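Give me structure tokens for this 142-residue protein.
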Amino acid sequence: MSDCVFCRIVDKDLPSYNIYEDKNFLAILDQSQFTKGHTIVIPKKHHINIWEVVNIKEYSTVIQKIGKHFLNLGFEYVDTLTLGRMVPHCHVHLIPHNGGYNDWTDAISKIGDMQHDKDRRLTNEEGEKLANKFRLQDKIHK
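Here you go.
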């Protein structure tokens, strides 16, 4: 879909900071980092919501793999959100943190504000640094 931001990212019409990719799914750093490492996992094929994803088991396996990857990096928690009203393309948020993180606690009540807060946007330098930190080396397609 030409007007879908995630389809445009999949088609490489828009830049992203990828930490995982296979033939069906892509994991990118969210531009609005709720916590450092906040990632969105999307199917490459356009689906408006998670319930349309035919290969949901494969999708779940990818989400679990990335969540475990964050735990192996030393995060105590990986919160998971499935939201879709703002971007009508199935996506799951993975939010790694170590608990007691006041910004994240406050964010739960301010998700919409954070998504629109341009001061939270990744700069190119920060995006590259974070993508390098969180990237699964064996699953990046250039």
